[in-house]
Amino acid sequence: MSEQSNIESILTESRVFEPPQSFDERIGGAYIPSLDAYEELYKRSIESPDEFWAEVADELDWFEQWNTVCSSDFPDVKWFEGGKTNLCHNCVDRQINMGHGDDLAIIWEGEPYNGTPEIRQLTYHDLHAEVCRCANALKELGVNKGDVVTIYMGMVPELAIAVLACARIGAPHSVIFGGFSSQAIADRVEDAKSNIVITCDGSWRRGSVVPLKDNVDVATELTELIDTVLVIKRCNNDISWQEGRDVWWHDICDQQDEDCQCESMDAEDMLFLLYTSGSTGKPKGIMHTTGGYMVYTYLTSKWVFNLIPGKDQVYWCTADVGWITGHSYIIYGLLPNRVPTLMYEGAPNFPEPDRFWDIVERHKVTQFYTAPTAIRAFMKWGDEHPSKHDLSSLKVLGTVGEPINPEAWMWYREVIGNNACPIVDTWWQTETGGHMLTPLPGATPTTPGSCTRPFFGIDAAVVDDDGNEVGENEGGLLVVRKPWPSTLRGVYGDRDRFIDTYFARVDGMYLAGDSARKDERGNFWIMGRIDDVINVSGHRLGTMEVESSLVSHDSVVEAAVVGVPHEIKGTGIAAFCTLASGCQPSEELKDALRKHVGEEIGAIAKPDILKFTDALPKTRSGKIMRRLLRDVAAGTDSNQDVTTLEDFTVLAKLRDEE
Ligand code: WT7
Fold it and tell me: Could you tell me if residue 238 is left (phi over 0), alpha (psi between -120 and 50 degrees) or otherwise beta?
């Protein structure tokens, strides 16, 4: 897919797919059964937000009632002030108290597959015992309410258990995706001032072991803050051990009491930090708090996926808990809805490219949520893989992370959904905590490539710099004009960056950082980022982040990084580097630089295309001409190709002379 062809196809896309008239028994009735029902309720949610959200919040448990529903405006948003609750309680204890302790909470499948898969099923009772033991262990290790706990693990059940244990004792977690490097761990630990890391000896990825504990060991040399490392044994790989610092999960958790009281948390107490990339080199710690996030992820999960307990539904989101999608739509939004959430440990194509469909068939998955990049990879691997499996359990298909090209959308609908499942293309962000623009499966007519309409309470608009709405089908800035319950509450330790990034450009509105247009039917179309952020396989990366890691290598003097259309990843990374005197361009150096970026940030940040140049094309004022670089990168389909500097300066000169 090229960016251009995608934009052209979405501009001409006019196919409309009506929602199914009715769902079968396992889905039951649709919560929102028609577009009229959506529109009526949407109007109410915008006109009387307090009433609307109070009703939703009442479906969950609070230890003390709130005084005000929404009590302030951007940037200092507060919801349910005065209310006290605990999100772990609502995920686990509440289900037990209502008599559902024996229902399945989590279904987990490991990656290794030797004829029979490794499966663990946890009921709410099981989960309660495990979470309490972990919570008590964290307390024994000296973690207090308010202390940030860093979590760097593979997709094992203990990851969900650790997250919930933190919520239980009021210790905000900072989960770092297991693909990030030691340097990335150390940076985040320093920023969050965190003293404890929970990790695994290793995690499985395509049959080999990712050495998570080794990575944490290196991180402990890069920062002095880490004094405790709690380690789960998963892969049995060799690891080094430091007495006094390292603690085995089973040694400490197994001996703990199976009960641990939930901390009573203020609605506005911090629930977690999650680092994400922005337009400067340094990732920012996005802060979410307890009450509003709980209510919003609960309702979006329920209505966007039509989750109904007691119907044998099985929900599967293929994201990693290391991203916001995993936080909101594997754990926090799901468990309060009492539909089992499936966690899969490994790669989509291990041992064979049909692994996902095998899982769907065996576990009879009803709601499936994945990313466009995965869909494109499956399209490429061939229809024979899904065709081998009975996918008739599927009822709702979701996508998230990046714009989905209409070809991939249609393939998803036809080959995976048998033309019978509505597709919910959900637009949202780490900062928004939950779905913002999305179809509702029983209500919204869908069109390939559009994330359709705002969720309840979301006052989204496409505006110019003055905050005025632009015309139909005109491109503009995507903003949200009113606070919603799971609005980010800040960038940890950096108030200025929080204001500058989200609230400075358009007065009084939340600036998403995406451009968009709204069509004649009121459907939104995301057009791309407006900042120096690129979206690689649905993962956000700052071009500056990659540039700083390149120039931190001795051989590189200057680097410029741009996005380039990529068949599978959506956007790939192209890097242009000028070398220090005495350094010669070579394939070895390219490999070394890619490896270096992998060590500095993580494998997802390794450039797909790397070019050496004597100079970067710049404007007279010294600004790198990224557009030109994007054109140069896009015109090259292979990183083997060594474009000479001559081509490059010729292009640059041409542009300069225009
Ligand atoms: C950025 C947010 C939200 C969880 C995963 C990514 C892009 C996300 C869509 C979509 C078009 C999308 C946007 C957004 N994005 N979902 N359905 N259609 N673009 O979270 O890492 O915070 O990235 O991802 O550009 O701003 P994130």
Answer: beta
Per-residue CA distances from 134 to 194, 248, 252, 273, 588 (Å): 18, 12, 8, 20, 46
Q: How far apart are CA 487 and CA 430, in angstroms?
A: 10
- Quote the pTM value: 0.93
* Beta-bridge partner residues of 209: 204
> What's 98's DSSP letter?
T
What gap in Å lies between CA 542 and CA 535, rounded to an integer? 9
Ligand 1 pocket, mutate which of 6, 409, 453, 526 (most atoms under 8 A from CB)? 526
Stretch 162-171: mean pLDDT: 98
Ligand 1 atom with the shortest distance to the CA of 431:
22
Q: What share of the chain has pLDDT > 90, as a percent?
A: 86
d(CA 405, CA 619): 33
> Pairing state of beta strands 104-114 and 341-344?
parallel
Which residues make Cβ contacts (< 8 Å) with residue 103, sequence separation at least 6?
95, 123, 124, 309, 338, 340
The label of the residue with tokens 């003293």 reads 195
Q: How far is the CA of 255 from the centre of ligand 1 (A)?
A: 42
Q: Best of 273, 535, 539 to mutate for ligand 1, by most ligand atoms within 8 A of CB?
A: 535
* Nearest atom, ligand 1, residue 533 CA: 25
Average the pLDDT over each of 188-202, 210-224, 243-257, 541-555 and give the range with the smallest value: 541-555
- Amino acid at site 649: T
* C-alpha 47 to ligand 1 mean position (Å): 27
